[in-house]
Fold:
Amino acid sequence: MTGSAYLVEPIFKREDVIFHGIPPKTYEHRSDTSGKRVTLNFCGRCATTICLDLERFPDILGICGGTFDDPNWFECSKDNCRHIFTRSAQRGVVLPAGVTLYEEHALELDGTPNRPTMLAHMLLLDHGGYRGE
Structure:
């Protein structure tokens, strides 16, 4: 859905986000896990994805980290980051130790937290015979 191996997506309250200029174009997708709508908002000129609008979480927007002038202005640490949907990660992706991992989303549809996987060491995903060579 993102066209990339990763999506760095800082989460903001919808009320704290204001877009100026031409409204973004949208593409709607249905999540294969929740069945809920995921709307990708993108630039109509260059097709850069700007943010995700999630039916499941109507009060937030996930802003694509690479769209900021300084993509490093927000802190990414084990305390405020997590990796979700690791079940569909590209082969060869290295998942760091100490960061909370979820095979799918961090929450069940009813809001119950999913059980995370914590690695004691780095893990190289092996999907389909990739040997890391």
